[in-house]
Amino acid sequence: MIEPVPAARLFTHEAMNTTFFLRICEPxxxxxxGMARECCDQIDLLEYxxxxxxxxSDVSRINRMKAGxxxxxxxxxxxxxxxxxxxxxxxxxxxxxxxxxxIAHLKxxxxxxxxxxxxxxxxxxxxxxxxxxSPGREIDLGGIGKGFALDLIRQLLxxxxxxxxxxxxxxxxxxAFGSAAWPIDLTGDRATQRITLMNAALSASGTGIQGSxxxxxxxxxxxxxxxxxxxxxxxxxxxxxxxxxxxLLLLDPKDVPAFIAGDGSIDAVYLDDGDKxxxx
Length: 280
Description:
The chain is α+β, with helices and mostly antiparallel strands and 280 residues long.
């Protein structure tokens, strides 16, 4: 039996080096258009604050800080950094947004040893500020920035009174809210598993498609010999789903069940081992 896709108005928006898809269940066209415009404006504002590639962004200014400097941040950037710091703790350090230099080195295709990870940044917990104790760390928010954007616009739509919706940043990060249930296909190399997404987020990470962006905080030799081809994580928020899908891809698949045992920030994990897609 093929589950029906809920009726929704579709809007698209290019930002954060991806395409955002906003499926909004709203019968009035004018209201839906207003919702979508506000969502797109907020996505653009977040990109300006979170992108490491825009000179005036909070993140680019953080990456230029010198020892002893303190930088005051936008509230949204501060909240995203605090969530990332929580993710670092929950994943035992596997999720790390301060590996920007290593990521850039890997994406460049240059030979030679990975850049050493040096420096220390301190995020102030109660004030939107960050202090550089010693330089060297470079922030690259990557997927968590997109997940954070989805969480923010989901809340905007809830505040607008949208009945339900499915929001996506590219094909790898989604969040559903409201009364509708959305059929989602997890497509592996040789098999596909269909799940239903309702009031939850889903993030996918994989070595098959985006292997060049996967960096282990322990260095290239810390990667498992046979990582999962793809990992999907279902979680209450898109940011948390992004954190866990990135972290779990850095583990040997056989180690994943014990690693996530008892963690309340995850709803479900699915792995593709090359032959089948199955829930852990």
